[in-house]
Amino acid sequence: MSLAHGYAAQDAHSPLAPFTFERRSPGPNDVRIEILYSGICHSDLHQARDHWSGALYPMVPGHEIIGRVAEVGAQVTKFKVGDYAGVGCMVDSCRHCEHCNADLEQYCAEGATWTYNSKLRNSEELAFGGYSDHIVVEERFVVKVSPKLDLKAVAPLLCAGITTYSPLRHWQVGPGQKVGVIGLGGLGHMGVKFAKAMGAHVVMITSTPDKGQDAKRLGADEVLVSRDKDAMAAHAGSFDFLLNTIPVGHDVNPYVALLKRDATMVLVGALTELEPALRGVNLMFGRKRISGSAIGGMAETQEMMDFCAEHGIVSDVEMVPIQQVNEAYERLLKNDVRYRFVIDMASLERG
Amino acid sequence: MSLAHGYAAQDAHSPLAPFTFERRSPGPNDVRIEILYSGICHSDLHQARDHWSGALYPMVPGHEIIGRVAEVGAQVTKFKVGDYAGVGCMVDSCRHCEHCNADLEQYCAEGATWTYNSKLRNSEELAFGGYSDHIVVEERFVVKVSPKLDLKAVAPLLCAGITTYSPLRHWQVGPGQKVGVIGLGGLGHMGVKFAKAMGAHVVMITSTPDKGQDAKRLGADEVLVSRDKDAMAAHAGSFDFLLNTIPVGHDVNPYVALLKRDATMVLVGALTELEPALRGVNLMFGRKRISGSAIGGMAETQEMMDFCAEHGIVSDVEMVPIQQVNEAYERLLKNDVRYRFVIDMASLERG
């Protein structure tokens, strides 16, 4: 065991505050990572405030973690001390079910162990996340990070990045396709960058007209304002694929209308009820499809990191010291960030 | 023009009653069919009573039509007088859009012309359906019917049959797959027969335990009672495909839980709001898919008719005289039919 320092929520209603806890010592397959940067994901806020219920406190959020390997177990083969490394939403899974065997640990039949707000595998001990000075993780759940990239802007790739990369790859987005990215936030801005890098004609679909110019800077070929009914009608039935990054329940019917026959919209942000309700007839006429996707497996996460290094893709970030995490949450609630807060963990007073 | 006799709804609240109207004379590509049998689809009731709004009155329902060709236009090539013929939900479409060119007239970009509750193409004249003594239809929208089959039991194939056959084919249901058919009514009982004939392991999923034995008679290998939470949990994540035939809005979440990773549930019955609302998280964990499907194109409808002749598949029907159509609607509302009412048009007093 070693003493770790971070910030935690103690219940759904109090601000995050300094918190000291014990981390296990690295086992033979583990690496210990000194955390340099930790992204703030919208889901950190949802979980810290128990919006999805079942929150486990104390909670140290953070699952977009970039750091430097400080210690490796005897059987570790992928990492050596000094390497840059990333940890995302998962730190463990059963490793023997059909999904784990297919490198899709996020769909583990027994449930993956999440980086925080989860119990460690076969244990009552809580998993604590990235708003802290170090973390110990089995190497299967750690990815290599190219030192070529701007590391602070790499952190959000571990969640916002893989969450958008995985469905774009799975549904084979590429040249000749018209692809819409719905919602311009942490996920959406990565979706635009990836879809563009994959060769698609990218349309940013946003309710906020003044984000239009920024969407084009990020790589969008067109901007479609979802509140403009005439514009929505003009694009009806024209999209090969839609990546829906809206982080809350919403009316999906107007977006379904944008799909071509047999085309798919994939939800990556909205975990809760899709209200007003989906109308069956909107799927039937045109055999339109709705699906969802959750992050990506560890092999695909590494593939995405390599793709980013090759294409020079990182997140657009705004740095905050850990002491301002609560203010950052308030701004996040107002969608006031372009496009991801990242905590500089150097700001943490280490023990 | 020739005088036709049938039964019509004059508004949303009155019973269907005898109605005389004019049918156009056959053009060069048309066939005139003397109607022998007309199935009663659940949607006849929805439309006659304006449940979906926008009903056009007077309305002669009926889109599961079997009859004998009585007259053919000069350019008709597929039919001769005396042939048995079927007409389903459509009688026309634009014939030049990408969907029509792909033999998917039901998704016509300009909107198909429906057999009733629709206006004739480029006209203000109403289309009148199969609860009548004859109908005139362009041959592209008429299918050949094998005289080997029991004709009165063939009528429901034109809607209930193609509606279930088409998605089972499109999603390539076959041997080695576990396929669930949700809802045992007019559509569901055809879904069971088709999925079985295609070689799948078929599970009938019903809220009505006493339909279980009948489902097995129809070909189901297993019965799953949707109200039995333990049984539903035991089948979680195990289905390769679900055909959802429930004809009204309902909670789809418990059925989504039955799907394997990357598997699809297709809605063919519920046109309205799916309430309580779908939860995004239920699609995300396992990349589960929901889609819909509407009837089938004319080429596929002919393929289905041929498949039925080859496999000896017809609908289970209960015959009613046209004078009892209103009583049949009341029984349909109570789900009291196994599994399709068919009107014997010989009961109609012809002019």
Automatic annotation (TrEMBL), chains A, B:
Its cofactor is Zn(2+). Pfam families: ADH_N (PF08240), ADH_zinc_N (PF00107). The keyword Transmembrane helix does not apply. Residues 11-343 form the Enoyl reductase (ER) domain. InterPro entries: ADH-like_C, ADH-like_N, ADH_Zn_CS, CAD-like, D-isomer_DH_CS1, ER, GroES-like_sf, NAD(P)-bd_dom_sf. The keyword Isomerase does not apply. Coiled coil: none annotated. This is NAD(P)-dependent alcohol dehydrogenase. It comes from Luteimonas galliterrae.
